[in-house]
Design brief:
Elements (H helix, E strand, L loop, with lengths): L4 E4 L5 E4 L4 E9 L2 E6 L8 E4 L14 H5 L12 H4 L1 E4 L3 E5 L10 E2 L2 E2 H6 L4 H12 L6 E5 L4 E2 L6 E7 L4 E8 L4 E2 L11 E4 L18
Parallel strand pairs: 1-14, 3-12
Antiparallel strand pairs: 1-2, 2-5, 3-4, 6-7, 7-10, 8-9, 10-11, 12-13, 13-15
Bound molecules: iron/sulfur cluster and FE2/S2 (inorganic) cluster (FES).
The site of iron/sulfur cluster has 11 residues, from loops.
Length: 217
């Protein structure tokens, strides 16, 4: 995708360029795990603007409501690299990085426990596989399984943007950004390119532009 980018505007929307596919995903529990259902079909375009103030009446798109709402979109997220920010959690056969940047999407929970417990007991083959799934399916990229040789295990994603909905919590969720799409701050500085990230779209995050699960409140 040529010129693929998400550009943050000062106190305004995300401008998406490069014809990045857009879809809606509904978070749903399935036993002790979580899965996605497809949501409504969203229009596809070369360029579109996504609301980040939470006030649009045409969500997920911006309708200009941020101006009347006096939205303060100041970006406060640390510019440090993921591997610098994240804590390394050691397990028996695998380790895991955790930077605490959680969107409360809950994909870190599996039948046999959560990602932290599974990593701890990753000498058991089933736990090892489940730990990789639990860490890799974290849409925020908070969790990443790491081999004992130090290689980060990432799922293969094509560039895509997914609008997350969380009806079981009676909330919207953030904007899942997959596949290393460049994200540029309002000041014109690129954030670290990541395979997985969730952007705030309720306007309440204290770690803008990233989701910090404030939508749950
Ligand atoms: S963002 Fe990651 S760590 Fe947070 S609840 Fe979702 S899957 Fe778990
Ligand atoms: S950012 Fe424009 S309406 Fe929300």
């Amino acid at each position: 995708m040529k010129n693929m980018k998400i550009r943050i505007t000062a106190d305004g929307p995300y401008i998406v360029t490069g014809g990045i596919p857009l879809s809606e995903k509904i978070i749903k529990s399935a036993g002790n795990c979580y899965v996605y259902d497809d949501g409504v079909e969203l229009p596809q375009a070369e360029t579109y603007s996504l609301c980040r103030c939470g006030k649009s009446k045409n969500a997920p798109f911006c309708d200009g409501s941020h101006r009347a709402a006096g939205f303060d979109g100041e970006e406060t997220a640390s510019p440090a690299l993921y591997t610098e920010r994240a804590e390394l959690i050691r397990g028996q056969a695998l380790d895991m990085l955790d930077d605490g940047r959680c969107a409360f999407a809950r994909f870190c929970h599996r039948d046999k426990g959560d990602a932290w417990e599974l990593i701890k007991h990753s000498d058991i083959p089933h736990n090892r596989e489940e730990a990789i799934t639990a860490a890799s399916e974290c849409p925020a990229g908070r969790l990443t399984a790491v081999t004992k040789a130090g290689a980060l295990i990432e799922p293969a994603y094509e560039p895509a943007i997914e609008i997350l909905q969380d009806p079981e919590r009676g909330a919207i969720c953030g904007i899942s950004v997959k596949g290393n799409i460049p994200i540029e701050s309002a000041a014109g500085v690129l954030y670290e390119k990541r395979n997985r990230a969730v952007l705030c779209r309720c306007g309440k995050s204290e770690n803008k532009p990233f989701c910090d699960a404030s939508h749950i409140d």
